[in-house]
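[Meeting: bench + compute handoff]

Bench side (C.D.) handed over the final construct sequence. Compute side (W.E.) agreed to return the predicted structure before the next meeting so the bench team could plan truncations. Sequence as handed over:
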Amino acid sequence: MARTSIAAAARSGRILISDGAWGTFLYRKGLGRGQCPELWCVDRPDDVRDIASSYIAAGADMVETNSFGGTRIRLDSHGLGGRAGELNEAAARLSRAAAGDAWVIGSIGPTGKMLVMGDVTREELRAAFGEQAEALARGGADALCIETMSDAEEAALAVRAAKEATGLEVICTFTFDKTVQGYYRTMMGLSPEDAAAAALDAGADIVGTNCGNGFAGMIEVVKAMRLAARGAPIMVQANAGLPASVDGVDVYPEGPADMAALVPALLDAGASIVGGCCGTTPEHIAAIRRAVRAR
């Protein structure tokens, strides 16, 4: 089915809703700590498809894939690097089966290896990201989301590799924390403005921020990122607040109504695509959808 691009839809004035947390959902379904989430795409496909279906039913315009840690480099830690193509293609097919007319966004997370430390080469990163992107496209992804990035060079390598391997639309989002000086920076010291510029220079179609903050923090990040976004749509996938550890389990404090109440301010800051990250559920996405409709 021919679809307009996500960027074109956002530029037309539509406010789009993305899905919510995948890891939170998988743990609730029984994923153990240290287990490989991507392996569920072949071992427990019904559970993975159910997550995607739940977010579509909640009103999401797009749903991601269960492939965040799906690079060959990251899968190697589970002894599964040789199955990267299989697992990513399966991830995309499951979300595609659930999505209907909604967009499927192939999730590509960081490798966990650091260029600055010499853990990995640029060539290895490009090959791993390209392999993952190609498999996600083969499985039916409409676009790719390079997400939870902190290093400008790794993000740029991922964006370029994804574009070269597939030609698909690419979203690139970064994770920021607030410093003691009151600024938002990635783990590698990148500002929202510099992060947006690096992603766009590499060819990203949409930039944004995910994880690390609830909507309240994201408002400031979006305002800063908008200064360097060059008119590109901005995507926000926030946590359900900042977690507290209770008996060794991360508990997120913000309910659906709490997050929905901040949607107007987030849109005023410049967000075009709004969804959730850690701790969010289909109920959160449904509340965000209602807030957008009320707007």
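W.E. noted at the follow-up: The first strand starts at residue 16 and ends at 17. C.D. will use this when planning the next construct.
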